[in-house]
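In response to the reviewer comment on reproducibility (Comment 2.3), we provide here a single inverse folding case reported in full, input and output, so that an independent group could reproduce the run without further information from us. The structure tokens appear first.
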């Protein structure tokens, strides 16, 4: 793992593997999730497919800068400020997190990249693809949404279950146990994971970094951000949308709507997949993303040849 300071002054922890002259793929992770949540099989599978692949900790996650100056925001105040003439506390938004990715690309001297975003990372990738078109070669949006987060009946039930298990005191054991419960609740019904495997993953994450206040600030960033649906038609990069049909966090309808809003987007609904990366599906997912990126690269090459005098 390496760290680099980007233009804004934020320090980003990242991993950069593969031939530096190969097409670059940037993996953008979701809410409160560290770069190690990207499965090794997927990450190195893309590297072995001939790509330069970067995964990183978003601001307020893992080993990247923890923005404690923003404190512990009130989601209620942020929600009300979007609906009433109130002033909320100064917070960052998903647009700021999108700027982090652009500045990371600049710091690593990457002019153009293929973006792969999961959950909140998909939201960030959508913003970049719409607002920084010339820097995005393709987009893959996984278990994400282009609209405001809405709690369905099943979503509300999940939220209440997670609140019940949320640690009352920030100690290692309670954090590990919560992480296990979280992944059991949002996981894929068709691909259940052994509790010992989930425990090992939880220990790895908690021991690497643990900052629940950072999670709260990222959640506040989602709440404070505008709906992206008006941006979707502006996305010109070839787009692949991957979504599980039993996702308890982002309903499958959100994935379908995202694909419908982006011109010529391809939609892949995965039966039995929830809001996680089931190990049994990683070989397939690597193949889907690799094929999508290679197809975008082929079109790019053909366009270059066509425009060449």
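Designed residues, in position order:
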């Amino acid at each position: 793992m390496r760290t680099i300071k980007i233009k804004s002054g934020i320090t980003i922890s990242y991993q950069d593997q593969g031939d530096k002259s190969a097409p670059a793929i940037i993996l953008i992770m979701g809410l409160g999730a560290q770069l190690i949540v990207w499965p090794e099989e997927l990450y190195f599978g893309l590297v072995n497919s001939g790509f330069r692949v970067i995964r990183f900790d978003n601001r307020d996650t893992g080993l990247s800068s923890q923005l404690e100056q923003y404190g512990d925001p009130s989601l209620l105040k942020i929600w009300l400020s979007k609906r009433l003439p109130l002033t909320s506390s100064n917070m960052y938004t998903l647009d700021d997190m999108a700027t982090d990715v652009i500045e990371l690309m600049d710091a690593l001297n990457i002019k153009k990249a293929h973006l792969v975003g999961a959950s909140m990372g998909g939201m960030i990738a959508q913003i970049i693809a719409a607002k920084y078109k010339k820097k995005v070669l393709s987009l893959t949006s996984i278990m994400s949404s282009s609209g405001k987060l809405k709690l369905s009946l099943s979503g509300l039930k999940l939220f209440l279950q997670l609140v019940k298990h949320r640690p009352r005191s920030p100690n290692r054991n309670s954090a590990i146990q919560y992480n296990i419960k979280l992944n059991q609740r949002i996981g894929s019904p068709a691909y259940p994971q052994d509790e010992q495997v989930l425990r090992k993953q939880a220990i790895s994450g908690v021991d690497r970094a643990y900052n629940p206040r950072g999670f709260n600030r990222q959640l506040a960033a989602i709440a404070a951000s505008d709906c992206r649906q008006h941006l979707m038609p502006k996305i010109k990069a070839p787009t692949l949308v991957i979504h599980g049909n039993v996702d308890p966090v982002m309903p499958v309808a959100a994935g379908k709507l995202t694909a419908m809003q982006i011109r010529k987007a391809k939609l892949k609904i995965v039966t039995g997949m929830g809001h996680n990366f089931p190990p049994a599906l990683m070989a397939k997912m690597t193949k889907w993303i690799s094929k999508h990126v290679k197809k975008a690269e082929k079109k790019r090459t053909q366009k270059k040849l066509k425009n060449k005098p």
